[in-house]
Each structure stands twice: as C-alpha cells, then as structure tokens.
Design brief:
Dihydrodipicolinate Reductase, domain 2, 2 domains, two-stranded antiparallel ribbon, 2 strands, elongated, isomerase, EC 5.5.1.4, NAD(P)-bd_dom_sf, inositol-3-phosphate synthase activity, Inositol-1-phosphate synthase
Length: 154
C-alpha cells in the first residue's frame, strides 16, 4: 500500500508540474492500481479530461492508452545510461539535473518538458566528443584492433 501511495504522488506530480496553473487537489486524480496478473507486462491508462467549450458548454474527453511496459521504457533507459556515461567520462558525479528532469518521472528539479529537453540537449552538447576527439577515438580503436590482429597472427 505504501508503494501505491508513493506512485500516486509521483504520477500526480509528473502531470501537474507541466500545467501552466495550479490545479486544486479535488480536480485531479492520477493513481496506479494494484498488480493485475492477467495484464502481464501491459499497462492501461484511462484518461478523462473535463472542461468547457464555447458558452461554457461541458466538454468531456475519454481515452484509453494500452502499452507494453518493458519496451515502452527502453528508450528512456538507454538515453539515461548514455547521459550517465557522458558524465562519467567528464568526472561528473551526483544528480544530472537536465537529463534527470527530462527523463525521470520524479526528478529533484521538476520543470516543463520543453525546458527539461533544452537542458538535456545542452548537457549532451557540452559533454559530447568534438569531431576531432571522435576521429581520434575511432583511429585509436582501429589501431588497437589491428594490433590485436597482428598479435593473434604471430
């Protein structure tokens, strides 16, 4: 039960943090369910949005999203690992603010997606190899492979 409460808080914060205005707690509900064995690795999300159209006419939208959970998160995990490797290569430790705010559901510094993406792209640009460094790395790898081949032939 404690984990479900924690997930409810993190999911609610992830959604409400990107809103331009504060939503009263009674106007938003985002929550997980218990584990449902027959869903296996699938996740279902039921989304309902209520509002008003022209003339304050009620407008409601309902949507069901179904995804396979494991492959759905693979891209995010790969991007996070790549950012961590860039940090390691540059001796950076601790929280990676930009990538964390863009890739994680409950980062220390929650920000709108467009700002988080911009911060992530800046982090990557600042810590990626220059074209010269990349070429030197490829040359070194080719030399190492050639030397390994020469040793194996001897």
């Amino acid at each position: 039960r404690e984990r479900l409460e924690s997930k409810k808080i993190s999911k609610t914060n992830a959604v409400t943090s990107i809103m331009d205005h504060e939503l009263p707690a009674d106007d938003v509900y985002i929550g997980p369910s218990d584990y449902v064995p027959w869903l296996t690795d699938r996740k279902w999300a039921h989304i309902r949005v209520e509002g008003q159209a022209f003339g304050d006419v009620p407008l409601n939208l309902e949507l069901k999203l179904e995804v396979w959970d494991s492959p759905n998160s693979a891209g995010i995990v790969i991007d996070a690992v790549r950012c961590c490797k860039l940090a390691l290569n540059h001796g950076i430790a601790g929280q990676l603010d930009g990538p964390s705010s863009y890739l994680m559901k409950s980062p220390m510094n929650q920000r709108p997606d467009h700002l988080a993406r911009e911060a992530t792209e800046t982090f990557i640009a600042d810590h990626s190899r220059s074209a010269d460094a990349a070429e030197r790395a490829r040359d070194a790898a080719a030399d190492a492979a050639q030397n390994k081949s020469a040793v194996a032939d001897a």
